[in-house]
Amino acid sequence: MSPLLLLILLPLVASLLITVGANPRRTALGAAFLNLVLSIVLFARYDLHQGGWQLVSEWHVLPQLGINLILGADGLTLTMLLLSTLVTFSALWVAPKIEKQEGLYYIALLFISAGVIGAFSSLDILFLYSFHELALIPTFLLIGIWGSGDRQAAAWKATIYLGAASFVLLIGLLALYISMPAEIRTFDLRTLNQLAASGAFTPAPWIYLILLVGFGTLVSIFPFHSWAPAAYASAPAPAAMLHAGVLKKFGLYGLIRIALPLFPGAMHDFNGLLILLLIGNIGYIGYVTVAQKRLDWTVGYSSVMHMGYIFLGLAAMNLISFNGAGMLMFAHGLSVAAAFALCGEIRQRTGTLDYAELGGLAKSLPVLGLLFGFVTMASVGLPGFANFAGEILVFFGATYSIAAYGNLMIIAIVIGVWGVVISAIYMLRAYRNIFWGPIAARWETLTDISLTARCSVILLLIPLIIAGFYPQFILNMVASALPR
Amino acid sequence: MNISIIAWIILAAPLLAAALIVLVTRTSKPLAAGLAILSSLIAFVGAWILFGSGVTGDYFGFNWIDLGKGFTIPIGLSIDSLSRTMLVIVCSIAPLVFIYSLGYMKEEEGYWRYFAGLALFLFSMLGIVMADNLVMMFIFWELVGVSSYILIGHYFRKDSAADAAKQAFLVNRIGDFGFMLGILLFWITTGTTTFAGINAAIGTLPPAILALAVVLIFCGTVGKSAQFPLHVWLPNSMEGPTPVSSLLHAATMVAAGVYLLARIFPLIAASPDAAEIIAWIGAITALGGGILAIGQDDIKGILAYSTISQLGYMVAGAGLAISAALPMFHLFTHAFFKCLLFLCAGSVILGMHHEQNIWKMGGLKNKMPLTFIAYMAGMLALSGCPGFSGAFSKDLIMASAWEHHQAIFWFLVIAAGLTPFYMTRQAAVVFFGAPRSDAARHAHESPMVMIAPLFLLAIPSIVAGYGFFQHHFFAGVGSLEEPEHLPHIVEFIFLGAFVVGLGLAFLLYRNRASDPLRIPLLSHRFYIDAIYDWAVANIQGGFARLCSFVDRWFINGVLVQGSATAVWFLGFCLRFLQVGNLQAYAFFFGAGVIGLIYVLLTVH
Q1: Cβ–Cβ of B543/A438 closer than 8 Å?
Q2: Do A399 and B157 touch (CB under 8 A)?
Q3: Which one of A321, A405, B81, B108 is most buried, by most CB atoms within 10 A?
Q4: Which one-letter DSSP state was computed for residue B527?
């Protein structure tokens, strides 16, 4: 059996077991653990010398319609799968005791996991899209049922927003399909890439714009971002971890997989637009983040801001910047998941994430404070964490393409480098306001983070630090997906 | 043992110590301190072996990042006369501060955190010293920033310490913004980030580009070496434990900025425009720091502004574009006497039971005679007393300025008159006269573990300026020749500045109960801090709030809600689906799939 199919099926089988009465938490964790081990093995065993698509298998689902389930992986896929399984396991592990419908809670998380793994490993555009939908719907459920604050409104907004984005995306993908000459119509990414590379098929540029809006909204590109902070602030921690850490990267993954090979010309022509939008993500959203008064909103907006750097990596259109973008997808996924995990831990103890009410928590929560310190430093891009390696590659790549994109690119670089200062402003303020300063009497008696939660955050930090010291182990994999 | 291995051991030992302290020895005070001190001693021995060997070369480089197609980010250690001298300075001072900390931090909590921070600090600094390219230097530069953040924020439960640590990190990051852009500019114009490569490509760069790139890199120095206008973090960093201030002001952190200028010295020398800017920033900082030092009442605050002023000399010395040895020589002598002065201040503070206001002190020369003697050595060296180390290096910078840049010269000379003035003020108020508080009447001398480092530092503070040291430490770095036709009047000016400053302060502050010279402009630090606070709260904060407002009411409110209204039928349909209703979602998803298949069927 294809190991990739196994990765998709394990969470689904675990869900099935939960519905027939198995212990939800243990079953889910067991499946997630197996998935994690499996993805590490696949990651390690990928043949870099050979490169290209490996582990390919094909099932003809509806051959008369040209619908085939094709699974396969290259280095970028496996990097994303490693990210997915790491975050899934950590999210399930850190999940608190659930009082209401525990089974459904874990099933929803498992479905997200199965969905993203499917989306990342599908070589068929239709399945790529459908798997993403499979992952999206449980997110709304998790926010709506187990969320906090104004959860109904947040779930509602995310549903409309992401639903609309998916719809736009679907229109774009179908338009792509229909615009092909009838005799060569296919959803197979490999064939599409070959057709595009050989010049046999050049899709119309406007289709790229539809895809950019569709994929972009899923990644919270400016100005289609306002669903993200609200949803993350309301979502239960594991859902926020999975969505911000992994699911959100699907839009970027889609752009790299579909837009980059099929629309090189259109991407080049519309690059000015993309650069303007990403400047909005970094500069404008950066300052919106500075104005936030609560940790969950700060982290939520910061995850919108940091998408700007990955878009910058795409917009610079060269090997250095693509490597940086790939690295950042991995790094940001881990660091934002860790941040949301700790957000949840703090909220559980204090019931609030408001800076004005918190302070001095490092006294009663020293280990939580230490871990949050690590996460803070990762997200401000301190050397030693993978985030730095990604950011600096993006900057070098963007600088390299000044010759191609001129002054607008220079502005993007200057704002991008300034964004590193902005990140430090809001993250250090969060750390200082929550953990430093004098402690209020009512927080003196809080109990520190549990061993389980501690380990699940450390599980995210370890790869972040390894990739920070030795980025090559991710970069070699990412590079295998890029044109040689 | 070969040089490469020694160099890597020097670098690795403190990192290993920091990691072990955090991971293993958090519960054991002696082990935490022991590991840190051991690592600093290893670095000390290694540094002197390297120095003695006199070897020059690039060692054990590897590619941290290698994307193929010629793009690499290398990591490699560069050992040359400049880095050898700097290694000796850093590694000789660090162990003294580490050992002194044993006594100073004895009663404090967070012991492991403190020593882990010290070891990390040393590691980061050594990385800067040995870096053979700009990116590697930037990496360790950032690590110095975070180490200082940890150490300045050691007493994080105090609001003032928490704010000071945050400010230090952020202000440094603002400088690093320029530094990073400078690195990118050099890379895109020369195709390399190694110092050797960039130096080789100087001739090919247009003057405007070269000047811009050098000034951008210099922004890093402005932040890290606390030059105007980014100097504000340094006086506030006094919130950290005193040994940290000592290390920060002597051999690490602030010295890194000056060292960077020495590293890129060929570039400064090749760009007169950039050099002019650097010299002026240095001169303004030297004078401004000296003036503000007069208005401080905190024993460490005076020393902090004095550091800013002395760093101004070094930066101005680099900006004169004569020789890389000029700023490095002053960095060398300053490292010893400033470290000594801070450790003396620490001894006084401990003896005074954590009182830092000099106007609560007085007559301490009788209570703390050993501290007093050591302090006087440092004070005279800093003041530029002839025969003491500071006079040699400072006078050399001023003499060079006389020959090359008269305006800068006068800035520096006035600052040179201010130095003995504020130091004599401090000495007279702290050690002479009558005790002004109970704490001063009952002050006690510090333990030997703290006194011994003082005397070990007092010796170089006196002698480190003589020809022997100039020859052995700076022969390879650059020329330390006095200008040939220096008129005697100039030497008189130097001596006059010292005598006048010292004499005036002695007359003014001898046996005073309170400060006769109370100038609000000075005690409020020229209101620069207040202006910055206002700007951060109102300009930056206002801009952020405006963005947030736009986001909430325009982008979210009008655009999103508006378009939601435009597609009202979608919302109308969705109204039937209660959020949280699994069946409804399944139905929705199913309907989508059916629609999709329908479209595909019609297409086929």
Answers
A1: no
A2: no
A3: A321
A4: G
Torsion angle of the four alpha carbons A310, A312, A313, A318, in this order, in degrees rounded to the nearest 10: 160
Residue A314 lies in a domain: yes
H or E, element range at A24: helix A24-45
- Which pLDDT tens digit goes with each residue over A91-142? 999 998 888 888 999 999 999 999 999 999 999 998 999 999 889 888 888 9
Give A266 to chain B, closest Cα distance, Å.
25
Chain B positions touching A67 (Cβ under 8 A) are 600
Please tell me the distance from the alpha carbon of residue B290 to that of residue B420, in angstroms, as a whole number.
10
Quick: pLDDT tens for B168-207.
Answer: 999 999 999 999 999 999 999 998 999 989 989 988 999 9
- Does B69 lie at the interface with A, CB-CB under 8 angstroms? yes
Instruction: Determine, yes or no, domain membership for A438.
Output: yes
Decide: B68 and B13 in contact? Cβ < 8 Å.
Answer: no
> B578: pLDDT confidence band, cut at 50, 70 and 90?
very low
- Written as one letter, the residue type at A275 is I
Domains identified in chain A, total number: 1
CA A99 to chain centre: 28
Which residue in A159, A226, A392 is closest to B555 by CB distance? A226
Q: Residue A202 domain-assigned?
A: no
| pLDDT tens, residue by residue, A377-410 | 999 999 999 999 999 999 999 999 998 898 999 9
**Sign of the dihedral through C-alpha A361, A366, A372, A377:** positive
B interface mutation test: which of A15, A125, A160 has the most B CBs within 10 A?
A160
What residues in B contact A145, CB-CB < 8 Å? Answer: 580
Per-residue exposure over B365-390, b if at least 16 CB sit within 10 Å of its own CB, e if not: bebbebbbebbbbbbbbbbbbeebbb
Domain hosting A380: range is 270-484
Nearest to B234 by CA among B314, B297, B169, B146: B169
State pLDDT tens for residues B110-139: 888 899 999 999 999 999 999 999 999 999
Residue with tokens 């653990």: A33
CA distance between the termini of chain B:
76
Q: Identify the burial level of B562 via C-beta atoms within 10 angstroms of its C-beta, where 0-12 means exposed, 13-18 middle and 19 or more buried.
A: exposed
Question: DSSP letter at B485?
Answer: T
The nearest CA of chain B is from the CA of A388 a distance in Å of 9
Please tell me the distance from the alpha carbon of residue B478 to that of residue B268, in angstroms, as a whole number: 14
Q: What is the pTM of this model?
A: 0.92
pLDDT tens per residue, range A154-194:
887 888 788 888 888 998 998 998 888 888 888 888 988 88
pLDDT > 60? residue B583 = no
Q: Which residues, in sequence order, are bridge partners of residue B66? A: B72
Residue A196 or residue A325, greater confidence: A325
- Which range (B35-39, B201-205, B521-525) has the least confidence? B521-525
Size of interface A-B (CB pairs under 8 A): 168
